[in-house]
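Section 5.1 Outputs to date
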Amino acid sequence: MRFISVIGGSKPTKEEYKLAEQVGAYIAKSGAVLVCGGLKGCMEAACKGAKIHGGMTIGILPGGNRKTANKWVDVPIVTGIGYARNKLVVKSGEVCIAVAGHYGTLCEIAFALGYNIPVVGLKTWEFHRRGKKDKGMHEADTPKQSVELALKLMKMKIPRPS
């Protein structure tokens, strides 16, 4: 079983919501399991897209109540650790797809890159280091391309720290 983490904002625009939903659909069609933060916004959209297409979804929740998970989450995991759960979201995937997002998403991107977990960005943050664009994150232009790239990165078997 393959696991892809989807990270993104809790208050997306309509366009960003649709992008996340399409990412979820392509993940389901690929046969991978979708892991996310389990709440609203891009997390809900990705889960919805996955469920509509027969996929499995896992939501790693910040609080201690399963009922806070969006209705598209199959497996709600309560943590009671707040934003610290962001690390669990990214560590649970073999690759992360970041859709839009704000500072919470930025935190998750940083965790993933710090753990050598590949990140595919779709309409999300860009990084510059010493005046030059940092190429640590892979960019995609469409939801389909983001999932195809994620699957390719998974096959490359990039070593992950334990």
